[in-house]
Amino acid sequence: MWFPLAGLLLGVLLGLVLRVEIPLGFVKYTAIAVLAALDTLLGGFRAQLEGRFDLVVFTSGFLVNALVAALLAAIGDLLGVDIYLGAVIVFSMRILQNVSLIRRDLLRPFVREGSPWVSEGPQWVPQDPTQRGESG
Predict the structure, then answer these.
(1) What is the Cα–Cα distance from 112 to 117, expressed in whole angstroms?
(2) pLDDT (tens digit, 9 = 90+) per residue, 56-74?
(3) I need a labelling partner for 58 at 20 to 30 A (CA). Which of 52, 84, 115, 135 fits?
(4) Do residues 72 and 13 lie in contact, with contact meaning Cβ atoms separated by under 8 Å?
(5) What are the φ/ψ torsions at residue 109 (nearest 5 degrees)?
(6) What's the CA gap between 8 and 55, in Å, rounded?
(7) CA-CA distance, 73 to 81, in Å (whole number)?
């Protein structure tokens, strides 16, 4: 798990030091790639905290998400419609959701059980299986 974080830090440092100029035509694609990378990294970190990290799923998720988002941006460019904004919205929502869940996982050891600050989901769960939608 430390390799992706080290790679991210190295990439940010290189980006700050080298001051690479991105051509205006590639700005949309770069934004999509950065969001795909952040989404994948945070998803991988969350999976690591939950004990279900898989390197193949992590790597394939990054590549497929970035390719589909780039394809959406390219189709949007061909049609003259900003379709890439859909990918930006979805990636942003997933990033915020992952940050929220990571924050909860990291805070869990420091917060007492039964604290009013911690909610573990719905407070009322019906005991009767027929009320929960389960059948025989």
Answers:
(1) 9
(2) 988 888 888 888 888 888 8
(3) 84
(4) no
(5) -65, -20
(6) 16
(7) 9
